[in-house]
Design brief:
Blueprint lengths: L1 E6 L2 E4 L4 E9 L6 E7 L6 E7 L4 E3 L7 E6 L4 E6 L8 E7 L3 E2 L3 E6 L1
Parallel strand pairs: 2-11
Antiparallel strand pairs: 1-3, 3-8, 4-5, 4-9, 5-6, 7-8, 9-10, 9-11
């Protein structure tokens, strides 16, 4: 069983930055893809960014050029650097491993 612990959320003003972290632990056979999704109030969960073990990255169009995803394979940790934040980025951010294991979520709130 894989446990994911997220951190780094908080309250920031529009134009500010936050850095999220997600560390995986437990019985991990092989981590292929790690990534982030988010869910805003009243909306469906949506993809933010993903990164494979080989370093292939994809972003949603809404965050491209503002967010940067990275991972440390030795630490089984994925990061999400969020820059130039906008109020519409306000959401609970969830990390995942292989689209199977999910974190509990961390709140990011951007004030205008």
């Amino acid at each position: 069983q894989v446990q994911l612990v997220e951190s780094g959320g908080g309250l920031v003003q529009s134009g500010g930055s936050l850095r999220l972290s997600c560390a995986a632990s437990g019985t991990i056979a092989r981590i292929s893809t790690m990534g982030w999704y988010r869910q805003a109030p009243g909306k469906q969960r949506e993809l933010v960014a993903g990164i494979t073990s080989g370093g292939r990255i994809n972003y949603s169009d809404s965050v491209k050029a503002r967010f940067i995803i990275s991972r440390d394979n030795a630490k089984n940790t994925v990061y999400l650097e969020m820059n130039n934040l906008k109020p519409e980025d306000t959401a609970v951010y969830y990390c995942h491993v292989n689209f199977v294991s999910w974190g509990q979520g961390t709140q990011a709130t951007v004030s205008s």
